[in-house]
Design goal:
The complex is a heterodimer of chains A (about 120) and B (about 450). The longest helix of chain A is centred in the last third of the chain and has 14 residues. Chain A is about 55% helix and about 0% strand. Chain A has a single domain, classed as Cytochrome Bc1 Complex, Chain D, domain 2 (Orthogonal Bundle), CATH 1.10.760. Chain B is mostly beta strands. In chain B, about 5% of the residues lie in helices and about 55% in strands. Chain B is built from 3 helices and 27 strands. In chain B, the strands form 5 sheets. Chain B has a 16-stranded antiparallel beta barrel. A two-stranded antiparallel sheet of chain B has the order 1-2. Chain B has a two-stranded antiparallel ribbon with strand order 7-8. The chains are: A mainly alpha (about 120), B mainly beta (about 450). The interface between A and B is medium-sized, with 24 and 28 residues.
């Protein structure tokens, strides 16, 4: 019984990580340099860029960004987020990763979403 | 016949179209999966992240001591192709007659190729540069008094840089060792990446007199070793540089003389060494001050033309020189940088007393997603016999596209005194450079 409860608690604690799959690893490799490991937009390159990277822990802002926009920005970079499609633009300094497998993009979005929960 | 207006409009349209499309990134950016502007204020001018990346051996400082993979060699190759045209009003000999416009002084097409650049092993990184020019460029003797003497020829294909770096320690506390051939010497953050004219032994490129190009920028590139240390916001380095440089004419190694010339065995400065000590200190996350002390020498072979060779030794004009420089970069906001600097130059021509000149510059650069725009003002006192006092104003517009194309237009006015011949050396004009980089 104790083992079962412990397992359930452990699963609950790590559910975000499970949901994010490879998201954490991909985020740290490709995103953290600008967005920061904690997603606050304070990575080591953040001050060098002409536009401050998005604070991914900002609940209000992140709730206004759809999964589709996140997907496009990950795959095509800032250049892919057009006013025609999303009603606004983001910095073109945001790099796109077109070679990232679809499943990894989903994992990455899940991991990014967890910052604002 | 296509009208010029149509050509201009088509160009603008094409440019707008290119800027809307997606990415092609040079190898360092591809290595790190970041945008070029993560490390460059304006390519090639570095920001802090870029400066630290270079000091860490072409890798993120956090990656020092960790294995770097070069398995995807395709990512590590970069190519740059550029074409330059200069439009220059030239003074007539004596400076008394009206200037004439020389148009389309093209520098030819130049291609640079960087194979497998970037980090490798646990602690190393390298950048080897191969240059291919469509037409050879003639180096010009800038030494007093035999100006205008061609002394060597830059080849059509050459290895123009070998820069091997290593870093040992932690991200904010590491020793770095750099060795290479034809390595850039005084390279620093922000303002230091803008060359500061001292004009004591050389003149900015290009300089014309009586319709003849007589001036070449004194560049500093030689084989050497630099030992540096980075501790938090401070970075220092000490370098010793020898002159051995590959002579493309006779296919052998000769000592380099800090310019395009090649030292011969009879050169009094054959095998001599230059030394420099540099520092850079970051104030906050973007601003910095830096400086260097450089002790070196230059000798330029003279072809006698009947002029008095009062500085010559055995057919060489010799100068032992020092340079002290202090410069700073201050970001007014994320997109606007104010830079300034001064350099004091002391020169000891072989039979001449020490002469000293002071030179200053201030520049303002603005960057946005389309490109960069800026102005720069230089002023300085003359040196030998009052020669080479320089005042210049420079304005530029540089536009980028994410496909890797960019174009730069640089308008400048320069006024330079040449007391030796009583003529003014005036090099004002327009330079347009179109570049593609992959």
């Amino acid at each position: 019984m104790k083992f079962l409860l412990s397992s359930l608690v452990l699963m609950a604690m790590t559910s975000t990580a499970f949901a994010a799959g490879n998201g954490k690893e991909i985020f740290e490799r490709k995103c953290a340099k600008c967005h920061g490991a904690g997603g606050k937009g304070d990575g080591r390159h953040s001050d060098s860029l002409k536009t401050k990277p998005q604070d991914l822990t900002d609940k209000n802002k992140m709730s206004s960004i759809t999964d589709e926009e996140l997907k496009v920005s990950i795959q095509k970079g800032g250049a892919g987020v057009t006013k025609e499609k999303f009603g606004h633009t983001i910095s073109t300094e945001m790099e796109g990763y077109p070679d990232l497998p679809e499943a990894d993009v989903g994992d990455l979005i899940a991991y990014i979403r967890a910052f604002a929960k | 016949m296509i009208k010029p207006v149509k050509i201009i409009l088509s160009t603008v349209f094409l440019w707008a179209a290119l800027t809307e499309t997606a990415s092609a990134l040079p190898s360092f950016a591809r290595q790190e999966d970041v945008n070029c502007f993560a490390c460059h204020a304006i390519p090639p001018k570095l920001n802090r992240a870029g400066y630290e990346f270079r000091a860490a051996g072409y890798r993120e400082p956090e990656e020092i001591g960790k294995p770097a993979s070069i398995s995807d060699g395709r990512k590590r190759v970069s190519v740059r192709v550029s074409e330059t045209a200069t439009y220059t009003p030239m003074p007539i000999a004596g400076g008394t007659t009206p200037e004439v416009i020389q148009t389309g002084d093209t520098g030819g097409t130049t291609a640079k190729f960087w194979p497998v650049a970037g980090s490798f092993g646990d602690n190393y990184g390298q950048r080897t540069e191969i240059t291919i020019a469509t037409k050879p460029t003639t180096g010009v003797n800038t030494a007093t008094p035999a100006k205008g003497t061609a002394v060597t020829t830059v080849p059509q294909t050459a290895v123009t840089l070998i820069d091997i770096r290593s870093a040992w320690g932690q991200s904010d506390n590491h020793l770095n060792v750099r060795a290479g051939a034809t390595m850039g010497l005084v390279s620093g953050y922000g303002a230091a990446d803008s060359s500061m004219s001292s004009n004591s032994v050389g003149t900015p490129d290009p300089v014309f007199l009586s319709g003849t190009k007589i001036g070449s920028k004194i560049s500093s590139s030689s084989p050497g070793v630099e030992v540096g240390y980075t501790f938090k916001d401070l970075d220092v380095g000490l370098a010793s540089v020898n002159g051995l440089e590959y002579d493309y004419v006779d296919q052998s190694l000769h000592p380099n003389n800090n310019g395009y010339s090649v030292r011969e065995n009879t050169d009094p400065l054959y095998n001599s060494r230059d030394t420099y000590l540099r520092f850079n200190y970051f104030l906050g996350k973007k601003n910095a001050i830096g400086g260097y002390y450089y002790q070196g020498n230059v000798s330029l072979p003279i072809n006698a033309t009947g002029k008095t060779q009062k500085y010559a030794l055995a057919n060489y004009s010799v100068d032992n020189f020092t340079r002290y420089a202090l410069y700073g970069t201050y970001y007014i906001d994320r997109k606007t940088a104010l830079m300034g600097g001064m350099i004091q130059a002391t020169d000891a021509f072989y039979t001449n007393p020490l002469t000293t000149s002071n030179n200053y510059f201030v520049s303002l650069d603005f960057y946005n997603e389309w490109g960069a725009y800026g102005v720069r003002y230089d002023t300085g006192t003359g040196n030998v016999d009052g020669n080479f006092g320089l005042t210049s104003t420079d304005a530029y517009i540089e536009l980028f596209s994410k496909l890797g194309f960019w174009v730069k237009a640089d308008v400048y006015y320069k006024d330079q005194q040449n007391g030796n011949t009583t003529a003014d050396l005036i090099t004002d004009g327009l330079t347009i450079t179109a570049t593609y980089i992959f």
